Amino acid sequence: MREKIKIRLLQNMLEEVTKKYDYFISLQNEKIKQTFEMAVKDSLTGLYNRQYLDEYSKQALARVERYENIFVLIFIDLDNFKYVNDYFGHSEGDEVLKKVAKIFQKTFRSYDIIVRYGGDEFIVLLEDKQYNKEIINAILKKFVKRVEESLKEFKISASYGCAVAPLETTDMKKLIELADERMYLQKGNKKSKR
Fold it and tell me: How far is CA 32 from the centre of its chain?
């Protein structure tokens, strides 16, 4: 009888130790997750930051070579954003950027990488087995329409340009430059039509 009581007491102690261990492990895992989020996410929008872009793009370009994937880099810049900051103030500009981040998340796939590149510039990275320009253009037009509808009081729009690896290059810097140039061409064409 005494042995059974001792065994039961030991089992209870072990259960209690296990619960505390599990609790501390879950706290540690949560802290690791929070630290990772702070390191790779933009604090204002919750989108990925440039540091994450650098790391992710290296891996993605390696997959392009290894698995013959297509890697599309889309450079997006908000049109008329300076007007919002200048006329309404930076806090209103921050709210606009938060709204745009939500539109990105509604428009693109959950596994697409969306990066706040700087200020009102964003980069979207799409990986796929095939490149379908028409589908990507349709998604981008939907994105621009959502931005314009959601932020019409500020007359905000968006311009974009795309570059594709490996079809054009497998150098990340060149992909960004190509997409940026194409974005500025689109922005210039919009201005000349006004």
Answer: 20
As given in the structure block, the two tokens for residue 138 are 């349709």
pTM: 0.83
Catalytic residue selected from 77, 79, 120, 180: 120
Per the structure block, which two tokens stand in for 104? 């990105």
**For residues 164 and 166, what is the distance between their CA atoms, to the nearest angstrom?**
6
CATH of the domain at 109: 3.30.70.270
Give the pair of three-digit tokens for residue 193: 């039509």
How many domains does one find in the chain? 2
Catalytic annotation on 180? no
36 & 65 share domain: no
Name residues whose C-beta falls within 8 Å of residue 27's C-beta, 6 or more positions apart in sequence.
none
Is residue 45 in some structural domain? no
Q: What is the pLDDT of residues 40-66, one digit of tens each?
A: 899 999 999 999 999 999 999 999 989
